[in-house]
Amino acid sequence: MPTLEITDLAGNVSTLDATSGDTLMEALRDNGYDDILAICGGVCSCSSCHCYIEGEWADKLNKPGEDELQLVSSTEHYQPNSRLSCQVTLNDDMDGMKVTIAQQDY
Ligand code: FES
Fold first, then answer.
1. Where do the 2Fe-2S ferredoxin-type domain residues begin and end (predicted)?
2. Pocket mutation for ligand 1, best pick of 28, 35, 43 (most atoms within 8 Å of C-beta)
3. Ligand 1 within 6 A of 18 CB?
């Protein structure tokens, strides 16, 4: 069970005890982080689950797929450490990962 450090849109920092095997989007959505809209439900077609993976964690994760990269890089608030949280599957090795929820385009 990885514990994540989450910064929301207001800048509030909190910890989230997530479940390995869930996606980051599911962990955020199911634990009341309403800044995550996840309009498409996790099928990589909306970008409303945009987050930033902070620090060295950005390099530790699997690389985004072509579809994810194309979608997230077209968002207004894209950064090199941007990910669509529905495309990040959590595991125990991610304990301590820092995530910032990105401003949505809409
Ligand atoms: S929930 Fe739509 S792209 Fe992630």
1. 1-105
2. 43
3. no
CATH of the domain at 10: 3.10.20.30
Domain assignment of residue 85, yes or no: yes
Domain that holds residue 62: 3-101
Query: Alpha carbon 99 to chain centroid distance?
Result: 7
Say if 78 falls within a structural domain: yes
Residues 6+ apart with CB under 8 A from 15: 3, 4, 5, 6
| Each residue's pLDDT tens digit, 17-45 | 999 999 999 999 999 999 999 999 999 99
- Is 106 a member of any domain? no
Beta carbons of 105 and 11 less than 8 angstroms apart: no
46-84 confidence digits (pLDDT tens): 999 999 999 999 888 989 999 999 999 999 999 999 999
Let me know if residue 79 belongs to a domain: yes
Distance (Å) from CA 35 to ligand 1 centroid: 13
